[in-house]
């Protein structure tokens, strides 16, 4: 299936939508009606004249009754093999599928050593580095399951379950970022089991945060909003009492609500998005200078990053660019979030025709969080959109496309 660039097969989401639509016997008008998107947008996406946004991708996947990954092409097995990440998935799958039963021959290390491992792996997560997570988490899970059987009932066992929840969370991060979304959901189920036996009442908010990402990808915005709203109601009283963990969790829920609303823009007023961003801004002022209790990067910088991304999802790429260019992210700030911001900026800049600036932001995303950037559908769609531009691609763009796997 040749494309305009002369590069051979075009792995774009639009071409996959078209192929599955034809298999279903649907016209473009028929799919556009089912997906609740405009016919014009669908024809431009299918023809390659417009990159598929996450909103359009999710809407088409729901209407075609296929997983979003069928349209994005994830997981990207060739790239995974090249990066030696594919071989880490099966051991992690076994660790997550294990029904909380330790292997009899396990010799666990002390809890302090396991906690140090988990903290180091969580720092890798913030940097967008996943090789260490895939390599170490299966053994850590097994060691913790063994220790749970040994420690006495009470606070020590509850805290061990909290560490196990953290290990499953890392497994979720690894599998979700690489495109194994069903395995990521199973990891969340295991995290929920462990969290229910821990001593932390707010760990379920972290689970809600990640589960809503699944609904974002698949267009289940209403389901995600129901769970987020339920948690907001539960958090109101502890926030009023000044509980900083609850305040951070509430801020994260407001940011998630803003994103969910922006993706369902057909049914959402922009004021709803602005309200949630404003509430998050106020809560970030209350938590300024305090430790990030759950590693969800709730702070003033992340609020402004969300302001940029929600403007893009609302269909205002120029506003997203204007706000995004005003941000100065501090050196060393959460590299996974910074990388995502640069990907969003690249998508917005491509939309308004600033192609060189779009590529520059893609390069910055790669520098901030290489694995996350390489395996994200937005990177591929934006790169494809740049390749479809007039004239031969620059050596820099060609090199980047090759790195992505196009």
Main β sheet profile: none
Percent helix, as a range, is over 70%
Shape: globular
Q: Specify the oligomeric state.
A: single chain
Tell me the distance between the termini. Answer: 14 Å
**Overall residue-averaged pLDDT value:** 92
Measured on Cα atoms, how large is the radius of gyration? Answer: 21 Å
Describe this structure in words.
The chain is an all-alpha fold and 406 residues long. It has helices at 13-23, 28-35, 39-47, 54-64, 68-72, 77-82, 86-97, 111-126, 131-150, 155-177, 181-195, 203-218, 221-240, 244-263, 270-287, 300-313, 317-325, 335-351, 355-368, 370-374, 377-387, 395-404. Helix 8 (111-126) runs antiparallel to helix 9. 49% of the residues are buried.
């Amino acid at each position: 299936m040749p494309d305009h660039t002369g590069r051979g097969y075009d792995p774009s989401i639009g071409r996959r939508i078209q192929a599955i639509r034809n298999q279903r016997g649907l016209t473009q008008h028929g799919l556009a009606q089912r997906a609740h998107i405009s016919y014009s947008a669908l024809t431009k996406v299918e023809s390659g004249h417009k990159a598929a946004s996450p909103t359009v991708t999710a809407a088409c996947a729901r209407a075609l009754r296929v997983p979003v990954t069928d349209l994005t092409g994830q997981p990207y097995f060739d790239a995974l093999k090249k990066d030696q990440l594919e071989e880490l998935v099966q051991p992690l799958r076994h660790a997550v599928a294990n029904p909380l039963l330790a292997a009899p021959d396990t010799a666990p290390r002390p809890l302090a050593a396991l906690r140090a491992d988990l903290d180091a792996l969580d720092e890798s997560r913030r940097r967008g580095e996943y090789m260490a997570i895939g390599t170490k988490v299966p053994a850590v899970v097994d060691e913790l399951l063994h220790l749970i059987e040994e420690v006495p009932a009470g606070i020590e066992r509850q805290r061990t379950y909290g560490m196990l929840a953290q290990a499953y969370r890392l497994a979720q991060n690894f599998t979700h970022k690489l495109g194994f979304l069903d395995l990521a959901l199973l990891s969340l189920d295991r995290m929920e089991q462990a969290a229910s036996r821990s001593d932390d009442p707010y760990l379920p908010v972290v689970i809600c945060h990640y589960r809503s990402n699944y609904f974002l990808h698949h267009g289940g915005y209403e389901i995600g909003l129901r769970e987020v709203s339920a948690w907001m109601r539960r958090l109101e009283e502890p926030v009023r009492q000044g509980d900083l963990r609850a305040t951070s969790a509430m801020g994260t829920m407001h940011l998630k609500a803003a994103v969910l609303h922006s993706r369902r823009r057909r049914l959402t007023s922009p004021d709803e998005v602005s309200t949630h961003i404003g509430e998050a801004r106020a809560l970030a002022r209350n938590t300024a200078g305090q430790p990030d209790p759950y590693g969800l990067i709730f702070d003033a910088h992340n609020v402004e990053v969300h302001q940029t991304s929600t403007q893009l999802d609302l269909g205002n790429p120029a506003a997203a660019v204007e706000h995004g260019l005003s941000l100065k992210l501090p050196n060393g700030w959460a590299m996974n979030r910074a990388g995502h911001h640069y990907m969003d900026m690249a998508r917005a800049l491509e939309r308004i025709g600033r192609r060189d600036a779009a590529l520059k932001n893609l390069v910055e995303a790669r520098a901030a969080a290489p694995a996350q950037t390489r395996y994200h559908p937005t990177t591929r769609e934006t790169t494809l959109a740049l390749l479809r531009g007039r004239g031969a691609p620059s050596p820099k763009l060609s090199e980047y496309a090759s790195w992505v796997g196009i």
